[in-house]
Design goal:
The structure is a homodimer of 415-residue chains.
Chain A: E1 2-8, H1 10-13, H2 21-31, E2 35-42, H3 46-59, E3 62-66, H4 77-84, E4 89-91, H5 93-106, H6 113-116, E5 120-122, E6 126-128, E7 137-142, E8 145-150, H7 154-172, E9 177-186, H8 190-196, H9 198-202, E10 208-215, E11 218-227, H10 230-244, E12 252-255, H11 261-272, E13 276-280, H12 286-292, E14 301-306, H13 310-315, H14 321-327, H15 332-345, E15 350-356, E16 371-377, E17 382-388, H16 393-414
Parallel strand pairs in A: 1-2, 1-3, 3-8, 13-14, 13-15
Antiparallel strand pairs in A: 4-5, 6-7, 7-8, 9-11, 9-12, 10-11, 15-16, 16-17
Chain lengths: 415, 415
């Protein structure tokens, strides 16, 4: 059972937006046992959409289309679907009721004819109600194949997929079982890992594949299994994981499907009833943002200081001016004082402090571009490391965030 | 002149990573006058890659391929390209020298045969040196068409594109002129805008298209023009923009190509020599992260407090316990005290404070899920607003960030 995803919109092709819908759809389809054969992004152009639909129909059993359903003139997906299915638009009262409800509840401008026209839908489709927006989802069936057209706005699309599309697909088909296990490692490059586990890799059964996903100091090892026999998949996956872990014990931090490194850290803190504080300079609040995007962060995260300006390091955190002028603002000494101060200020058990020069210019700092110091204060110790993360601002920041989490987790697990 | 982008990797199709490379490539190709006809993402599978290459060759003149060039067994792009071009792999000393240099400089593990094998490249390709990684870029020419294969690691790919691929394409072809102008608006829905500017839209010349890009409280209006005559494109675009702006004056904040809202804000601050501080609760550091991802933020951004826990609002910012127990932690009163405290603590001219319940649970807070308060302290005034941003955690946080920037810019422009 194969699916194809078609995302429609000039904004994707000109790079104005990043297509995040496809990744979400790929993940959700995989969970119910559907492989995605191909993702195709095309312009808001009738002949291109028709061509993509035709090719998708020949490749896949399930075709999911997003985008081009807005109320404005550049949105042509609905008309194009009518042409593809030799259909016509008819008024749907349920859709109009939903549009009117949304306007009365959440939208301050008056409802217009443009909005009311969104209640016109192809006569052959089944309407999927969009709880969060005015464009309905549409479900078509043609010669044993299913086509689903969804709005491009991510949170509207996601709700429709989870609440409506996936349950309907499960009712319509019987799917094989797909299982991914991704092992998160920090501290060793992909080819070094590959060398080390070569025998393991060569002896994997046919229905399990291994992939390496390297990214700025971390490498994810993904095992993917697919088979109609769920028990076989689960047992063999478990066996292979148990074979693999001892070979990478020193670099393995956890599984990604259930856990990112920040949720592994959060879980550790919650179990130990311990807390964390931050003092972020060159990472600018990104560590904090990643921690707080998960619900429940308030159980262990006390807060942080984004001390971007040197004076805020002095005035808010109380870093000594003498330390800064002697060692420079990017130094182990300053990182240490920042971590200790954050721990004290927030009365936390642990603290992370980051100071560095993310570039692109050397500026008036003593530190080279890419030079950073990260300090971890724990209940018992203070660990400080210096790195050079290169000359790419975004990369320096992201590597700093990854390295901070890696260093913190290592210290937590020691205690 | 059309391009097609092919991104290769199982991790894209199963949704483990979001394909950000395509958006970057789309944007850069557009800048030199190349339209992207289609983006196709396929698995690490020989027959699928071959099929995608064949289709791309029939659609487009320039085919850019990313991914599948790593040193490990799951990376098969290079072998597949050999098959497609009826070619064979040969040793390239320049590539090996680069790999050895990278290892000696940046990588602590010893170089292995797996890494050395990356110096095998198809004999018919021109090698593009990868300054940041071990996989080289490859440039093929076949019957007036260009195929470029690039590593999937974003920063390696980006450097190759900017330093090597785009200059070579410019030398090889003569391109038409493409110009996008995106007007950033805040505060009115897409259909209300569409109603208002209907006459303008109907009278646009053939070679200029208008698109609406709505996203959580902001709508971007993109005008796209393409023509061989650069002067015509530039003059007509300017004329249309001058026609459009007066019709949306109350909601227009700036142009996106050059400026996101945070860079517009940064520019205003720098011109006025004024400064900003933050006190972020439910936005968790995201406002700070967005400000600091731009170089030069230190010229106006003093820093911020991520006061996620209630006690940190009291202890670090000095919000009064009485205010919290009387009005609740999500209240206009608390937001006001936070903004005033941040402004004072960091000695800034302006401060933003955010407090809210992003959900998914009501918890022990008085506030409903989605309820938030945002306060802006200015040199002269204090503005506080309450919103309900719905029941989706990620959406509540992102709407909060957008609304904070919108409110701040409005106040700056008043002063």
């Amino acid at each position: 059972m194969q699916a194809e995803i078609i995302t429609i919109g000039d904004e994707i092709l000109i790079g104005q937006i990043i297509d995040t819908n496809s990744a979400f759809l790929g993940k959700q389809l995989n969970k119910i046992g559907v492989s995605v054969y191909q993702i195709t992004s095309v312009q808001d152009n009738k002949s291109q959409i028709l061509k993509a639909l035709k090719e998708a129909e020949s490749n896949a059993d399930i075709i999911i289309i997003t985008g081009g359903l807005g109320p404005t003139k550049d949105d042509i997906t609905k008309h194009t679907l009518c042409e593809y299915f030799e259909d016509e638009l008819i008024h749907n009262q349920k859709v109009l009721d939903n549009i009117e409800m949304l306007f009365s509840k959440y939208i301050s401008t008056p409802i217009s004819d443009i909005n009311r026209h969104q209640a016109l839908v192809p006569s052959k489709c089944k309407v999927l109600t969009n709880k969060y927006g005015t464009a309905p989802g549409m479900w078509f069936e043609k010669a044993e194949k299913v086509f689903v057209s969804l709005p491009g706005v991510p949170y509207e699309m996601k709700a429709l997929v989870n609440d409506d599309v996936l349950p309907r697909l499960r009712e319509t088909y019987k799917f094989p079982f797909i299982l991914h296990k991704t092992l998160l490692t920090y501290g060793l490059g992909e080819s070094a890992i590959s060398n080390r586990i070569e025998v393991f890799e060569d002896n994997l059964p046919d229905f399990i594949k291994l992939a390496y996903l390297p990214n700025l100091g971390k490498v994810r090892l993904r095992l993917s299994a697919k088979n109609m026999d769920r028990t076989l998949v689960e047992q063999e996956m478990e066996r292979q994981v148990q074979l693999l872990i001892p070979q990478i014990e020193d670099i393995f931090v956890g599984f990604e499907e259930t856990e990112s490194i920040e949720t592994i850290i959060g879980k550790q803190f919650k179990e130990r009833s311990q807390t964390l504080a931050l003092a972020e300079s060159f990472t600018g609040g990104k560590i904090s943002e990643i921690i707080t995007k998960h619900a429940g962060a308030s159980q262990f995260y006390k807060g942080g200081i984004n001390c971007y300006a040197t004076e805020s390091k002095i005035e808010i955190l109380g870093v000594s001016e003498a330390t800064i002028s002697k060692f420079g603002v990017v130094s182990k000494e300053v990182a240490a004082e920042m971590a200790i101060a954050a721990k004290k200020l927030f009365k936390s058990d642990y603290a992370i402090a980051t100071t560095g020069n993310a570039g692109p210019e050397k500026g008036d700092e003593k530190a080279d571009v890419g030079e950073v110091c990260i300090a971890i204060a724990t209940p018992k110790a203070l660990i400080i490391e210096t790195f050079n993360f290169g000359n790419h601002r975004e990369k320096v920041i992201d590597k700093g965030v990854n390295k901070s989490f890696e260093m913190l987790l290592k210290e937590i697990l020691k205690n």
